């Protein structure tokens, strides 16, 4: 498997608090994580966000918060992009809302798919 280390960006306390408040305003829920991906379809880049909250029944379980329509995906993506302008937005990013850390999502490719075993 790949040993690539993901790039991390840490928000200052004021930025982290502002992001948390804006994400609560947008989704209506207290979030713990947001995952952003920029897929391309029909020759256009789109913002796709997955917002996660903690389950009330089991705090160890994260639940997806439904984001109705593409407008919320874009609004959340642009909010994070503005807060972290130095991040590489051509790759997927995971934002830890509690700690204020944006981490580049590194997809590890199994050795059998890299051709090492062939």
Structural notes for this entry:
There is one protein chain. The protein has 118 residues and is of the alpha+beta class. 29% of the residues lie in helices and 26% in strands. The chain has 3 helices and 8 strands. The chain has helices spanning 13-27, 69-83, 111-114; strands spanning 8-10, 33-37, 40-41, 44-45, 48-54, 62-65, 93-96, 101-104. The strands form 2 sheets. A 6-stranded antiparallel β-sheet has the order 1-8-7-2-5-6, covered by helices on one side. A two-stranded antiparallel sheet has the order 3-4. Helix 1 (13-27) runs antiparallel to helix 2 (69-83). The longest helix is centred in the N-terminal third of the chain and has 15 residues, at 13-27.
Largest sheet, if any? 6 strands, antiparallel
Uncertain residue ranges = none
| Mass-distribution shape | globular
State the share of residues found in helices, binned by percent: 25-40%
Task: Please state the structural category.
Answer: alpha+beta
Which whole number gives the mean pLDDT? Answer: 89
The DSSP helix count reads 3
Detail the topology: elements first, then pairings.
Elements: E1 8-10, H1 13-27, E2 33-37, E3 40-41, E4 44-45, E5 48-54, E6 62-65, H2 69-83, E7 93-96, E8 101-104, H3 111-114
Antiparallel strand pairs: 1-8, 2-5, 2-7, 3-4, 5-6, 7-8
Helix pairs in contact: 1-2
Brief descriptors of the model:
29% helix; 118 residues; alpha+beta
